[in-house]
Amino acid sequence: MDVNKDNHKSNNIEIKNKTEKKNIKNNIEIIPVKLDKDVKPNDKLDMLILESLKKTRQILCDDDILVIAHKIVSKSENQIIKLDKIRPSARSLAIAKEHDKDPRIVELILNESNDILRMSRGIIIVETTQGLICANAGIDQSNIEDGSNCAVLLPVDSDRSATKIRGSLKRKTRKNIAVIISDTFGRPFREGQVNVAIGIAGLEPIKNYIGKEDMYGRQLRVTQIAIADEIASAAELAMGKADGVPVVIIRGYNYQRAQKKTSISQLIRDKERDLFRQQPSYVFD
């Protein structure tokens, strides 16, 4: 009997994919895991997750993918900064004045960044110290106590955080799972934000079709699917910013297990190949 289906029919999102040609039926489930408490610094996320699963009569299974919102990871790792302790530099004060931002937040953004790529309309697009390209270095003031005087940073090393959580849950449950730490990013050229992976453990983040044939026998040359990002986006459907669901189980997706240590850096395009960081080579009259 599937306990998850019996007790959470109203919350689970199930996607069915039937391939008639091969007579294969794959069910992918998106299972929300609601935590009963607000995560505090030094909380053990693995124990909180297992306690929540137990209360709702759910279990982890082999090949489950656990998607965890970075906010609770950052909180547990004490990545919460009190803004009254921040002394903005002259550069931060100048940027804040020009872009109508809190200079203390700007100071944090600069501290958490390798490079500033764009600044406009109160948005600062940076390359973070982890190499992620995002707005405001991922610094957030939502869903925390005293949000007016505190800010939450991204985890110092999201891959390491994912690896630690995976290892602990694997030891406690004896289930071979994968872990994705996610955050919500904006996108060039499109409105709205989507959940993306910022840390991974236990799975290959890219599905490579290069060299394979399409349905008409043509050889594919460039197709690579960022499955870690797609899984993170799917999980967001069951999370919700105000619903207290920072963890989601993706069950039934046939992903490639990692045979060695993987990293979110595999999803970050090299600067030399990034058209959007390069200066235009032509100008229209």
Instruction: Give the class-level CATH name of the largest domain.
Output: Alpha Beta
Strand order of the largest sheet: 1-2-13-3-9-10
Number-wise, the strands total: 13
**Roughly how many Å is the radius of gyration?**
21 Å
Low-confidence segments, given as residue ranges, are: 1-10, 18-24
Largest sheet: 6 strands, mixed
Number of domains: 2
SS strand fraction: 25-35%
CATH topology of the largest domain: 60s Ribosomal Protein L30, Chain: A
Give the CA-CA distance, first to last residue.
68 Å
In DSSP terms, counting alpha (H) and pi (I) runs of 4 or more, how many helices? 7
Structural class call reads alpha+beta
H and E order: HEEHEHEHHEEEEHEEEEHE
CATH architecture of the largest domain: 2-Layer Sandwich
Give the overall shape.
globular
Provide the residue-averaged pLDDT. Answer: 87
| Assigned CATH superfamily of the largest domain | CofE-like
Please identify the oligomeric state: single chain
- Portion of residues within helices: 10-25%
Question: In brief, what are we looking at here?
Answer:
The protein folds into two domains: 3-72 and 155-268, 60s Ribosomal Protein L30, Chain: A (2-Layer Sandwich), CATH 3.30.1330; 81-138, CofE-like fold (Alpha-Beta Complex). 25% of the residues lie in helices and 27% in strands. The chain has seven helices and 13 strands.
